[in-house]
Amino acid sequence: MMKVGSRLMKGITVAGSTVILVGMLGGYSFAQDAKQIYAEKCEACHGATGKGDGPAGKVLTPPPSDFAVSLKGKSDDWIAKAIKGGGPAVGESAVMPGYGDLSDQQVKELVDYIKKLHS
């Protein structure tokens, strides 16, 4: 009886540890996805650090602004709307395209990533 209980507890411990590890790795994966999405869709204009100094941004009129300035006081919902619908969706420049192809989860993680760039 003791051996069965002991094995059961070891199994529960291993299963619980696996769930925790998968959850931790899942979070890491999402962070990598947001960084990759930013690199693919945003960095050319907004720059690697969100200063508006990307190579394509240097030739845009109007140029992209520094996130530290343009996102000050903006809600997560406002940023998400700008990502999904582009500049016109939030009363900003039509030069910024929308990325309606991103899932809500990708947008949420991208918002979090962008906020870390300008904080």
What is the name of the CATH architecture? Orthogonal Bundle
- Sheet-strand content, in percent, reads under 5%
Q: What fold name goes in the CATH topology slot?
A: Cytochrome Bc1 Complex, Chain D, domain 2
- Biggest β-sheet strands, sense, barrel: none
Look at the structure and name the CATH superfamily.
Cytochrome c-like domain
Q: For the CA atoms, what is the radius of gyration?
A: 21 Å
Which residues sit in consecutive blocks of at least 5 with pLDDT less than 50? 11-29
Mean pLDDT rating? 82
**End-to-end separation:** 57 Å
Q: What form results from the Cα inertia axes?
A: globular
Helical content band: 55-70%
Q: How many separate helices?
A: 5
Query: In CATH's first tier, which class applies?
Result: Mainly Alpha
Number of E-type strands? 0
Key descriptive features of the protein:
119 residues; mainly alpha; Cytochrome Bc1 Complex, Chain D, domain 2; globular
Quick description:
This protein is 61% helix and 0% strand.
Write the topology of this structure.
Elements: H1 2-41, H2 43-46, H3 67-70, H4 76-85, H5 104-118
Q: How would you portray this structure in words?
A:
- This protein is mainly α and 119 residues long.
- Helix content is 61%, strand content 0%.
- It has one domain (30-118): Orthogonal Bundle (Cytochrome Bc1 Complex, Chain D, domain 2).
- The chain has helices at 2-41, 43-46, 67-70, 76-85, 104-118.
- Residues 11-29 have low confidence and may be disordered.
